[in-house]
């Protein structure tokens, strides 16, 4: 174990959330729960990025009173990456939800394994 | 800077913009725009390739007004330009070869959406090939994933939608891991541009700090891309996705989409982590083992399959295994062999998908082997093309598959610890390939009289037959004049450093 | 000099026979190989029916998931191994994180010359008071261009999945009437007050994107939410007066084209070291910071329409 686990408690929380989301997305059979897992996973990564940008005692990167000194503001790059990431996550969630709607109207179940079984049974 | 250096930027933006334009065009116009864009990008890539071969140096292109650590960049070398050219050729031929199936399988009002997806897929592939920035790569990986998912489920039967869900789940896991690895890498180095990350990584390795996070970050990124490119244990979505989607989609997905991710992995290995650093992590052994397992188990599943398109799809799993085995050798020769196999597999697999659709069409649309008996007599062009593709897959001289197997064997001989394993598995896998492909070829050339299906002549499938001829030519060219291609790959890899 | 071949000689050549075989005129087996006499194909309906029945029976037995003991056992094992897998992953990442540079300190590798220049020179070089907006729309604009196309391609896939044909539309209309609220007086009254406020707030966020917290995506999402509220209160009949699938198509087309072309111009001038003709303006003014404001407006329009389109597609499969 390294020295910085407690200093990096925000990252530690994000790692735990990431793993919970990852496992849900991988191993749940219910599609809606899978999508929730996906969103937990993505949010955990944004939390991780936000922690990367943070510097103790500094302000958000919006120039106040024309002061442009690097000592005053936090790192703006992770915030920008989070913005981009959120859009990606919204798009993917919309796509997954519409796939779910489509499967539900056709097979009347949200269980992916059951849908597979039905498909194999149809044998087409 | 020469004007020709703008070409990578033009090709990415042109294909991106054409996607937007297609959204307001009717289906026919969208089709024309799609073909023209693929051709134009192909021509530009060819010109760029010639230019780069003559100058012998790669170049960096600023995406904006700011230089390296601040702005965003793309980068072009011989390997990138060659890949872009090759992707365009395969994409054009796949679109042309599957065009006649589109009206039957996709609702008329959704045709222009199909062309939007193809254009955006092309632009994301180009961006993955050319980009020099890790986060840009992540964003375009997502475009690639979503448009590939669209290509799978545009033919709306239950199987494709289920396959699309499975594909999305696996891909999202992959992107999640990739992004997390990327964030850790950013935390360690403070950069997002590949060249800057590499400098910092060299410093980190020299100082001996942050060893564990570095290895974990590399492992996360590698695993993410392996999941996305359907390396062996992560291939559950693949047979349904390739087997039931419309034929152009299947050809494009198997030969381009997974290859885009693999090419990104190559870029990460060479341009982000550094080849020697990557080899010193034990990641290559993992890739090697999974590659070998993929080669065997993919072929075994293909032998069991009773559906011709699913059989071809399972064979993709085996071929991806070959590519990762080449990575796992950890030598320059293994890498060259892998890259050559990317080309050869892309050319062959799309040919097989396109030829298979000709055979199933003259068997009443059924893909079962029982119905396919004698189908090569009913559609002779498809029969010949399928045979050519099969021979190439098995590794018969004159075809591209032979050269890639030869290169793999040569590379394996140079590696000490892994020689025996790779040669034995290469041999077993070749025999297994021969079993299922030759079984199919014999089946389609078995004359039968007990069949209710009509044949088709050249007059009714001119465009399709011409496409097949081009595909076979591409295979034979790769197989006969492989030395220039191999030299080019070597030159491109040298430019990566 | 090539000799002209007679027709008989020509018919003996390989090329002639090959092309005849290709075109399907003659089968080379017929007449050359001893063959069984051609039997006419006769489908056997009874056998086919019997096969189908047997197949169904087998399938019923094979896929009887309710009474399969092994399957239940497998599910238990699956759950246990999932939890173990999750714990293993957590342990791995926690160990990694314990070795990362400590959080919140200035000496971390991420606080290097890159972020310093964004902060110190950002105002001067991009004209944006909001440094993050300047960074994502100017320094690293290629990412953001890709990002807006991710949203675009996602809408396309949702359209493919959920857009209905003309024939299915009527049924969807009936379903929608049955399941969704119609003419709810309270909702309508609240919406009359709230919707204008929400939309104006969204517009403010978009226009203020380069001056303070905000920007195209967040503002667009707010406007989209306002539109969804309006739709819920007043129904599709009212919204169709000003917002149909065509409006959506053209707004998206114009915004994304503008985005693409404007950024292409800026990339092209940047890479070729040409002078860009776009004025930066005085930082802090509403009309400043070059392309950032128009790009925010374009992104805002796309996002607002997309959010509304997602909702309409999920609810009814059309506008």
Topology, element by element:
The complex is a heterotrimer of chains A (124), B (497) and C (319).
Chain A: H1 9-27, H2 31-53, H3 76-107, H4 112-122
Helix pairs in contact in A: 1-2, 2-3
Chain B: H1 7-22, H2 27-55, E1 59-63, E2 72-76, H3 78-98, H4 102-105, H5 111-130, H6 134-153, H7 158-189, H8 194-207, H9 211-228, H10 238-244, H11 247-273, H12 275-280, H13 283-304, H14 308-329, H15 332-361, H16 369-372, H17 375-378, H18 380-394, H19 400-414, H20 419-444, H21 462-480, H22 482-496
Antiparallel strand pairs in B: 1-2
Chain C: H1 7-12, H2 14-23, H3 45-62, H4 69-98, H5 113-126, H6 131-139, H7 141-162, H8 166-179, H9 185-207, H10 216-239, H11 245-271, H12 292-316
Helix pairs in contact in C: 5-6, 6-7, 7-11, 7-12, 9-10, 10-12, 11-12
Description:
The complex is a heterotrimer of chains A (124), B (497) and C (319). Chain A is mainly alpha-helical and 124 residues long. Chain A has helices at residues 9-27, 31-53, 76-107, 112-122. Chain B has 497 residues and is mainly α. In chain B, β1 (59-63) and β2 (72-76) form a beta hairpin. The model of chain B has no long low-confidence stretch (mean pLDDT 90). Chain C is mainly α and 319 residues long. Chain C is extended, with a radius of gyration of 33 Å. The chains are: A mainly alpha (124), B mainly alpha (497), C mainly alpha (319). Chains in contact: A-B, A-C, B-C. The interface between A and C is large, with 62 and 66 residues.
Give the oligomeric state of the chains in this entry, treating copies of one chain as homo and distinct chains as hetero.
heterotrimer
Report Rg of chain C: 33 Å
Quick one: biggest sheet of chain C?
none
User: Hey, roughly how much beta strand do the residues of chain C contain?
Assistant: under 5%
The CA-CA distance between the termini of chain C, in Å, is 74 Å
Mean pLDDT across the residues of chain A is 88
Kindly state the number of beta strands of chain C. 0
SSE string of chain C, helices as H and strands as E: HHHHHHHHHHHH
Number of helices of chain C: 12
Sheet with the most strands, sense and barrel status of chain A: none
Shape of chain C: extended
Structural class determined from secondary elements of chain C: mainly alpha
> Given the structure, what is the number of helices of chain A?
4
Low-pLDDT sequence parts of chain A: none
Broad shape of chain A = elongated
Largest interface: B-C, 74 and 68 residues
């Amino acid at each position: 174990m390294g020295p910085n686990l407690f200093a990096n408690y925000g990252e530690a929380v994000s790692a735990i959330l990431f793993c919970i989301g990852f496992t849900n997305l991988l191993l749940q059979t219910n599609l809606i729960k899978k999508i929730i897992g996906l969103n937990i996973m993505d949010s955990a990564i944004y939390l991780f990025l936000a922690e990367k940008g943070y510097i103790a005692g500094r302000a958000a990167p919006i120039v106040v009173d024309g002061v442009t000194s690097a000592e005053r503001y936090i790192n703006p790059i992770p915030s920008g990456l989070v913005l981009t990431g959120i859009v990606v996550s919204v798009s993917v969630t919309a796509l997954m939800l519409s796939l779910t709607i489509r499967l539900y109207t056709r097979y009347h179940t949200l269980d992916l394994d059951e849908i597979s079984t039905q498909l194999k049974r149809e044998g087409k | 800077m020469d004007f020709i250096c703008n070409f990578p930027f033009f090709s990415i933006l042109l294909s991106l913009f054409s996607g937007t334009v297609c959204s307001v065009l009717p289906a026919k116009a969208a089709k024309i725009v799609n073909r023209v864009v693929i051709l134009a990008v192909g021509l530009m890539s060819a010109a760029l390739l010639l230019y780069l071969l003559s100058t012998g140096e790669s170049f960096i292109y600023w995406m904006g007004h700011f230089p390296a650590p601040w702005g965003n960049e793309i980068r072009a070398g011989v390997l990138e330009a060659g890949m872009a050219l090759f992707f365009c050729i395969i994409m054009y031929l796949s679109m042309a070869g599957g065009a006649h199936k589109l009206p039957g399988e996709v609702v008329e009002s959704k045709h222009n959406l199909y062309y939007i997806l193809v254009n955006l897929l092309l632009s994301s592939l180009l961006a993955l090939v050319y980009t020099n920035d890790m986060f840009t790569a992540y964003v375009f990986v997502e475009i690639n994933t979503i448009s590939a998912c669209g290509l799978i489920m545009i033919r709306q039967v239950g199987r494709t939608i289920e396959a699309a869900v499975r594909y999305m789940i696996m891909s999202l896991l992959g992107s999640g891991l990739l992004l997390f690895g990327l964030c850790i890498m950013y935390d360690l180095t403070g950069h997002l541009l590949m060249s800057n990350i590499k400098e910092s990584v060299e410093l980190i390795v020299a100082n001996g700090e942050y060893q564990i996070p570095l290895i974990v970050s590399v492992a996360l990124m590698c695993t993410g891309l392996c999941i996305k490119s359907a390396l062996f244990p992560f291939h559950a979505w693949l047979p349904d996705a390739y087997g039931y989607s419309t034929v152009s989609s299947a050809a494009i997905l198997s030969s381009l989409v997974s290859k885009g991710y693999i090419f990104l992995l190559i870029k990460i290995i060479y341009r982000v982590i550094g080849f020697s650093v990557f080899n010193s992590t034990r990641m290559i052994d993992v890739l090697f083992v999974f590659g070998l397992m993929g080669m065997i188990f993919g072929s075994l599943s293909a032998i069991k399959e009773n559906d011709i398109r699913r059989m071809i799809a399972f064979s993709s799993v085996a071929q991806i295994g070959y590519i990762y085995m080449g990575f796992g050798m950890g030598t320059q020769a293994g890498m060259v062999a892998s890259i050559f196999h990317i080309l050869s597999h892309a050319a062959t697999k799309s040919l097989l998908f396109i030829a298979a659709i000709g055979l199933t069409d003259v068997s009443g649309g059924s893909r079962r082997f029982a119905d396919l008996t004698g189908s090569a007599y009913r559609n002779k062009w498809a029969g010949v093309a399928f045979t050519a593709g099969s021979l190439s897959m098995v590794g018969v001289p004159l075809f591209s598959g032979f050269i890639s197997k030869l290169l793999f064997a040569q590379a394996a001989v140079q590696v000490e610890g892994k020689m025996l394993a790779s040669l034995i598995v290469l041999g077993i896998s070749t025999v297994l390939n021969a079993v299922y492909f030759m079984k199919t070829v014999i089946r389609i050339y078995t004359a039968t009289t007990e069949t209710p299906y009509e044949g088709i002549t050249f007059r009714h499938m001119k465009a399709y037959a011409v496409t097949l001829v081009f595909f076979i030519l591409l295979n034979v060219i790769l197989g006969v004049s492989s030395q220039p291609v191999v030299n080019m790959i070597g030159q491109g890899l040298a430019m990566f450093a | 000099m090539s000799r002209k071949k007679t027709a008989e000689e020509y018919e003996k050549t390989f090329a002639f026979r090959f092309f005849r075989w290709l075109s399907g005129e003659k089968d080379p087996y017929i007449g050359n190989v001893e063959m069984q006499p051609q039997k006419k194909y006769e489908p056997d309906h009874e056998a086919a029916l019997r096969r189908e029945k047997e197949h169904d029976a087998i399938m019923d037995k094979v896929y009887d998931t309710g009474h399969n003991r092994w399957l239940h056992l497998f599910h238990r094992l699956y759950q246990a191994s999932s939890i173990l897998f999750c714990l293993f992953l957590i342990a791995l990442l926690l160990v990694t994180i314990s070795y990362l540079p400590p959080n919140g300190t200035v000496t971390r590798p991420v606080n290097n010359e890159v972020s310093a220049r964004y902060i110190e020179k950002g105002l001067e070089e991009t004209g944006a008071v909001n440094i993050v907006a300047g960074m994502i729309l100017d320094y690293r604009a290629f990412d953001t261009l890709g990002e807006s196309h991710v949203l675009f391609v996602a809408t396309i896939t949702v359209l493919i999945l959920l857009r209905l044909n003309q024939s299915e539309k009527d049924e969807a209309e009936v379903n929608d009437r049955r399941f969704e609220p119609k003419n709810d007086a309270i909702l309508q009254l609240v919406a009359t007050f709230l919707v204008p406020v929400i939309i104006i707030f969204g517009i403010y966020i978009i226009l203020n994107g380069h001056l303070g917290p905000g920007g195209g995506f967040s503002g667009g999402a707010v406007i989209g939410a306002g539109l969804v509220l309006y739709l819920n209160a007043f129904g599709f009949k009212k919204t169709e007066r000003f917002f149909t699938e065509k409006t959506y198509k053209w707004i998206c087309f114009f915004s994304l084209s503008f985005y693409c072309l404007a950024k292409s111009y800026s990339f092209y001038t940047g890479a070729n070291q040409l002078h860009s003709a776009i004025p930066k303006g005085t930082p802090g003014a509403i009309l400043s910071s070059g392309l950032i404001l128009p790009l925010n407006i374009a992104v805002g329009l796309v996002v607002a329409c997309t959010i509304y389109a997602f909702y309409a597609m999920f609810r009814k499969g059309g506008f």
